[in-house]
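S1.2 Input.
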Amino acid sequence: MSEVKAFLWKGDRLLILDQRKLPLKEEWFEAKTYKDVAYAIKEMLVRGAPAIGCVASYGFVLGIEAGQDPDVVIKELKSTRPTAVNLFWALERIKKAYDEGRDVEKEAVLIEKEDYENNKKMGEIGSVLIKNGAKILTHCNTGALATGGWGTALGVIRSAHYSGKNIFVWVDETRPFLQGARLTAWELSKEGIPHKLIVDSCAGMLMKEGMVDAVIVGADRITRRGDVANKIGTYALSVLAKEHNIPFYVVAPTSTFDLGIEKGEDIPIEERAEEEVKKCGYTSVSPEGTRAFNPAFDVTPAENITAIITERGIIEKPSWDKIKERVGS
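S1.3 Output.
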């Protein structure tokens, strides 16, 4: 079993695996200040909602140890990416520890440790839903690179694989940042999990031909009623899965639920630079002067979701009443 880590806390600095360089180069970025951490999050050296929350917590520690105003540190870290709620959850938690006079470094380490343990629990719980020999379609990257370790949706796949189930994974390339092609395929290759990479637009054909048994994705924010914000392209997959009677599973820790938001339309959707769409890697793929629209996420309505898998159990056909039972109010 290969251990993949997205970041390493060294007590006085944070090492962050620069995911922009993968899979061609494994290069570590050394964050010595909270501003370094903010840069790493904003520029997507590190990405994935749980990982962002963990890394931001360590950024707060670096700011406090340097004698910075905690409110200034929190404000800058919160401004990095607007959609992933784990960022705000983690910063509010560590700020509470600071206000109560507790050791913030210990709190940050605990946030990372709990995320890893929760991912392992979700993997065990979710793998029960995966049949032996299943062909699974996944989108974006939801593995150890996106979390404190093990992964959310990819963690379920990983757990199913290590339980002895003969699974196969279809990996969406996930344009425009290619998290599937560059990161998910990299993680699966390291662990010897059978997979093939596909262009995003191939998913519908695979479903029509009976070549997909389940779709498993992660989440960046989940509302009270169970609407899910996730990487752009997730909504289209949910529609295709519903049309072809294929189960559509979302895997996320309870920290990804934003119970202050009722419906998906109220989730802030990050819009990123046009250049990400107009280029593939560093190569231009559109004429000069062409404009691009680049929302980083879309929203999948609760009615398109078969179940949400959390560390506290499975929420089938999500609704507020069911979410309240698992997540609380």
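S1.4 Remarks. The radius of gyration is 19 Å.
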